[in-house]
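Note to self: user wants both folds in one dump. Writing first protein now.
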Amino acid sequence: MTDWHRAWTAALDELEADVTRVEALLADDHRVRDLPVADPWTPPAGLGPLPLELRPRADAILGRQIAATQAISVALATNRRQAELLARVESGAAPPRPAYVDCAA
């Protein structure tokens, strides 16, 4: 195995570990508060082009990252809706809604 291939394998290992952590957080969301925020990934210097035989793995990791991002978006939206519902239950009031008055005579 060439140094170029080993460098790419290591870079993909790092990306895969990041997405695995995100997937684990989504599956076990009560631990989110206990885990540190991951550092954004940056490719190592001098990595060069991706070896062709590693392309399927890189594509699979990208697909998992996209799915995890979508799952995070859904989880955030669900959390917002639940927080709004809880606020209404606690206050006993519905959120203010716009009122329209027909002034045409």
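First done. Writing the second protein, which came from a different request thread.
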Amino acid sequence: MKVETLVVGPLEANCYILKKDRQALVIDPGENYPKIKKALQDWEVLGILITHCHEDHIGALSELLKDYPAKVYQKENLLEQVYKMGPFSFECIFTPGHTSDSVSFYFREHEVLFTGDFVFRGTVGRCDLPTGDSDTLDESIQRIKKYPLSTVIYSGHGDETTLAQECRTNPYF
């Protein structure tokens, strides 16, 4: 599985496109649909995964769905279970705190976790916005600590990190 990172919009959100066997998943289609569409050229989009519904993470969703009418996976229609589609298999983990609808997606086979704005390299997402809650965020952090320390974390903004690095250096862990 190839992970392609597109930095989109004025808040420089990360939109991820996972590619394998000419099929793709899109995670957090933020603003700048032309950039996302170009990256998807010649790929079949199997699904769209939403970590939370802030505009910088879903700004291009409606445009994307016009060209790629794929199923949208977001908290309102998810269970904490494993989902399989095409060559992809991922686990949905509810990780509220930044927002009440925050979800992380774990790809066990590749040991990668997409956290949206829940965890960043060296810090965590803000909890002072509507539906945010720092106590709930702390509980979510404890939940992801059970995953392998070698897990690579792809967040909603900035560079990737690992769970091991966050456990060692992130003051919120």
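Dump finished. Worth passing along: The first helix runs from residue 33 to 39.
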